[in-house]
Amino acid sequence: MKNSGIVLMYNCSGPEFSKLRQIFAMLRLRMRVVGPDRYQVPLGELAAGKGEPAAEAGEAIPETMLVFCGLGDALLHQVLEVIRVAKLPPIDLKAVMTETNREWNTHQLCEELRKEREAIAAQQKAGE
After folding, report:
1. How would residue 25 be classed by pLDDT, with cut points 50, 70 and 90?
2. Helix (H) or strand (E) holding 68
3. At what angle are helices 18-26 and 73-85 packed, to 10 degrees?
4. Phi, psi for 92 (deg, rounded to 5)
5. Which whole-number Å values give the CA distances from 57 to 32, 74, 79, in the listed order?
6. What is the DSSP letter of 31?
7. Model's pTM, two decimal places?
8. Domains of the chain, with CATH numbers?
């Protein structure tokens, strides 16, 4: 069976995330742990296993984050459902690599995800 896709993992390396790594392995997803020394590398390069680490690590993002690269819709929905059912520690930010964001670096993606989260929260609050 071929690899189904790649997951970029940020701040998901502790023992509490071993179940998450098992899930990804079972689904034949390759995992790439991304540290602060690679935050300046575009997502597309990170997914391809390329990009040189910076001489000095950038500011670490405080949240846990997953970026799904090259997964089909059905597999993505399956992965998200398995994560939900597995009752894992909360994963603050999740994204799918797209043609639009593949040239973004980690900090750009995080900023967009935070804006999106704030907009959704504001919309929900307005609807109450």
Report:
1. very high
2. strand 65-69
3. 150
4. -65, -45
5. 17, 36, 30
6. E
7. 0.90
8. 5-127 (3.30.429)
